[in-house]
């Protein structure tokens, strides 16, 4: 399995040659200028909520790939009106079996509206279970007690957690979240894209080390093996 970071909360994960893209936000990300959106191939697009910094490239990637969009009913319906025909809506607690494994939608504590200001439903995260690995993509969220239910149902290999503070958890809460969901490996998301969510990366990594955890902060465009 391979994981590529495209900045902010956008990740591409390749599972047995099936490509799953999360929260595509690239062209409007000032740090992702070197990423060519047209070169991104995806079979599925998973969207955690409707904010512009998580959906801005959905239509572009879909136009190029016809990837299946999986998100909340409200997000999927909004994109359906824009011509997207391949989709599957989920709501919290719902799970779907796909050719690479299962996707379960779980709670997130945040807000959600579409780029035009219309209602975006409730924000969400995803637990992905495959033959190779099981992981949690938290989306944009605060720390919350429902995360403990993930550890009760799954054995996670890693979690993609927001760490930028202000609009989501900061590093301190993300380390607690890792305990809640039962993993010591965090891949950081939703930080440094804008000045208001800048973090001290060395300090964040040191905090994780002090708690016997691995906080991995990827360079935009970097690919790692999981």
From TrEMBL:
Alphabetic keyword roster: Hydrolase
PANTHER family: UPF0173 METAL-DEPENDENT HYDROLASE MJ1163, UPF0173 METAL-DEPENDENT HYDROLASE MJ1163-RELATED
Ranges of residues in domain Metallo-beta-lactamase: 7-190
Protein name: UPF0173 metal-dependent hydrolase QQ020_18445
Signal sequence, start to end: none
Coiled coil residues, start to end: none
Keyword Hydrolase: yes
Family in the record: Belongs to the UPF0173 family.
Gene Ontology MF annotations: hydrolase activity
């Amino acid at each position: 399995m391979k994981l590529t970071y495209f900045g902010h909360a956008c990740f591409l994960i390749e599972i047995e040659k099936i490509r799953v893209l999360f929260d595509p936000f690239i062209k409007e990300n000032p740090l992702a200028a070197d990423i060519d959106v047209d070169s991104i191939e995806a079979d599925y697009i998973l969207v955690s909520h409707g904010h512009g910094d998580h959906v801005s490239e959905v239509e572009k990637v879909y136009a190029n790939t016809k990837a299946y969009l999986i998100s909340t009913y409200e997000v999927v319906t909004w994109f359906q009106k824009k011509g997207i025909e391949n989709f599957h809506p989920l709501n919290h607690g719902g799970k779907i079996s796909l050719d690479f494994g299962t996707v379960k939608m779980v709670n997130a504590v945040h807000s959600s509206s579409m780029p035009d200001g219309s209602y975006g439903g409730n924000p969400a995260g995803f637990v992905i279970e495959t033959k190779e690995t099981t992981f949690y993509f938290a989306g944009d969220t605060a720390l919350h007690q429902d995360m403990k239910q993930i550890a009760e149902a799954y054995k996670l290999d890693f979690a993609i957690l927001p760490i930028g503070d202000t609009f989501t958890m900061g590093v301190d809460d993300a380390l607690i979240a890792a305990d809640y969901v039962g993993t010591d490996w965090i891949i950081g998301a939703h930080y440094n894209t804008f000045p208001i969510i800048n973090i001290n990366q060395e300090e964040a990594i040191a905090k994780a080390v002090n708690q016997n955890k691995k906080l991995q902060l990827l360079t935009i465009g970097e690919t790692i093996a999981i």
